[in-house]
């Protein structure tokens, strides 16, 4: 695996060895799959999405259960899961909080053009999953960790491509600077958190893999197609924030 920065597996920047790359390419277009059903739950109120409410939620979490923690593998695997971490950066915009995403560069060998959170696999000298997420965010989009107020983490998420991912949630207060790594990132964009935290925007679709059918979440927003593990982690954040 080349260099220090091993980049992404659908949700986080992870490069695969050459012999694995053909297996990571999709054999279907998820945008063309029919919608099976919707999550359908009511939207989380704007009051719960305010910065102080988010801080309180992570400081005093309720009893809750994540909906998805283990995806069906896209192919048979015998190797142990690879540890990784991603950052879910909540940007405190005047018009309301947003969540920041990246779109993969189109020329990449694996998962070109897909939507993900900044992040990547853990390195030996990372102190923790939080350190991994912050380091990878700095390397990938140039967002300094000094601008990020880490709220906490969500339950680990096992991806269908063999990664054990820790989602780290943080608040980012503008102004701040970003600089995308052009070798990895085609675009940085934001989606209103209120849109993502509405069950009516959570679609379920199903695709066939060599290991069997897999149903996953899809959250299309304007010209961006958020799906797979990225959408699955958002679904868990949704349940965490709506729990009573």
Structural description of this entry:
The chain has one domain: Nucleoside Triphosphate Pyrophosphohydrolase (Alpha-Beta Complex), CATH 3.90.79.10. The N terminus is likely disordered. The chain contains five helices and twelve strands. The chain has 244 residues and is α+β, with helices and mostly antiparallel strands. The longest helix has 15 residues. A hairpin with a 4-residue loop joins strand 7 and strand 8. Helix content is 20%, strand content 31%. The strands form two sheets. Strands 2, 3, 4, 5, 6, 7, 8 and 9 form an eight-stranded mixed β-sheet that branches.
Structural class of the helices, strands and pairings?
Answer: alpha+beta
Question: The CATH topology is what?
Answer: Nucleoside Triphosphate Pyrophosphohydrolase
Look at the structure and give the mean pLDDT.
Answer: 88
Percentage of residues assigned to helices: 10-25%
Number of domains: 1
Percent of sequence in beta strands = 25-35%
What's the level 1 CATH class?
Answer: Alpha Beta
- The Rg value, from CA coordinates, equals 17 Å
CATH superfamily: Nucleoside Triphosphate Pyrophosphohydrolase
């Amino acid at each position: 695996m080349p260099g220090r920065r091993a980049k992404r597996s659908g949700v986080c920047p992870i490069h695969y060895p050459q012999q694995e790359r053909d297996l990571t390419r999709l054999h279907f277009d998820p945008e063309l799959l029919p919608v099976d059903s919707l999550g359908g739950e009511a939207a989380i109120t704007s009051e719960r999405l305010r910065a102080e409410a988010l801080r309180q939620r992570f400081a005093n979490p309720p009893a809750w259960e994540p909906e998805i923690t283990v995806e069906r593998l896209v192919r048979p695997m015998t190797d142990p899961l690879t540890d990784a971490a991603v950052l879910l950066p909540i940007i405190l915009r005047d018009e309301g909080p947003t969540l920041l995403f990246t779109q993969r560069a189109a020329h990449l060998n694996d998962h070109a053009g897909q939507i993900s959170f900044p992040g990547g696999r853990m390195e030996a000298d990372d102190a923790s999953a939080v350190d991994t997420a912050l380091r990878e965010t700095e390397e990938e989009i140039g967002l300094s960790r000094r601008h990020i107020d880490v709220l906490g983490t969500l339950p680990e998420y096992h991806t269908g491509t063999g990664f054990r991912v820790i989602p780290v949630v943080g608040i980012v207060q503008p102004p701040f600077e970003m600089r995308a790594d052009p070798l990895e990132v085609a675009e940085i964009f934001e989606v209103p958190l209120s849109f993502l935290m509405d069950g009516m925007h959570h679609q379920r679709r199903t695709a066939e893999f060599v290991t069997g059918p897999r149903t996953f979440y899809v959250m299309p927003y304007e010209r961006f197609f958020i799906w797979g593990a990225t959408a699955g982690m958002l679904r868990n954040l949704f349940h965490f924030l709506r729990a009573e």
